[in-house]
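Input record (one chain):
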Amino acid sequence: MERRELLRWLTATAGLAALEGLAPEDLLALGRDVHVRAASAGGSVLGQTASRTVILAAERILPASDTPGATDAGVVGFIDRMLADWFDANEREGFLNGLPELDRRSRSRAGRDFADCSEADQVAVLTALDEELTALRRAGRGGEANRHWFGMLKYLTVYGYFTSEPAARNTLRTYPHPGRFDGCAPYPAPASTPTRP
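The corresponding structure, as predicted from the sequence alone:
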């Protein structure tokens, strides 16, 4: 998938009302900005238990292979910043209240919390949730699927991953543009340089 296709997909499937109106280029710029702020600020929304769960879930969604995984791309810090800065109170609460469902499903399946399960059991739990969201979308209930806490987790994992520098360089094989260039901008003459009549 090319970067533009990915950004169009992200825009089309945005579960967050604040992101739905953003153009792909704006979505990319926002993602990069969130990564910068996440690197300079510590976590503020995810507690220790939630952070551990999100780290493992994100790594199962986008595992490291010959390319960086979600952890290498700083996805958990990205998700935490998005929760703090972009989610409204209801979205944030729905996301945080949904995370314990991973533990409930894992206990039912393997007798342990999600973080203590084997990788295979974690993947099975995430796959079951993903299949449920796919069924909602097929039933014409895509908005409900996008607002579901797992839909948000998956969306933010993919969004955070593909707007990170490690994923851009090592997965997409693209390099971030150095910044805006405006070749038509006026250039003021220095005050000490005399001007010609």
